[in-house]
Design the sequence.
């Protein structure tokens, strides 16, 4: 009996390793992509709703006070839009990675590398947009 357990362990390990070079079933990949898309859309919608809600609250306060939005409120808007942009980039990244599960070997590695690169580009663009908007606010006449 003692020799049985090591044999079972070796067999289980070999089965697990042999599955590494097999692509995920198309139906599983499709389901995972659909799930990641839905989750990502929900997160983006939540971030956008929070951004709009905060902006409307700040705008209502400004109207009530008879003043324009403060620079701080405008910077908050910029930061909230940045959050929406990064949330969208993260959602797109998760979907792209799920699509890579249908591949194996070099094709999968290349797919994942491409997903990483696009994600970094999207995050960089979001950061550059945020910095440009904040600079425009700082440079605006007072």
Sequence:
């Amino acid at each position: 009996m003692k020799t049985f357990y090591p044999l079972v362990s070796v067999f289980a390990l070999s089965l697990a390793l042999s599955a590494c070079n097999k692509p995920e079933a198309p139906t599983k990949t499709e389901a995972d992509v659909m799930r990641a898309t839905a989750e990502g859309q929900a997160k983006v919608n939540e971030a956008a709703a929070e951004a709009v809600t905060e902006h409307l609250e700040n705008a209502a306060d400004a109207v009530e006070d008879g003043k324009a939005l403060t620079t701080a409120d405008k910077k908050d808007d910029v930061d909230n839009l940045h959050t929406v942009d990064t949330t969208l980039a993260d959602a797109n990244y998760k979907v792209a990675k799920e699509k890579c599960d249908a591949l194996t070997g070099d094709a999968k590695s290349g797919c994942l590398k491409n997903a990483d690169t696009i994600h970094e580009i999207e995050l960089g663009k979001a950061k550059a947009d945020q910095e440009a908007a904040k600079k425009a606010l700082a440079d605006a006449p007072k």
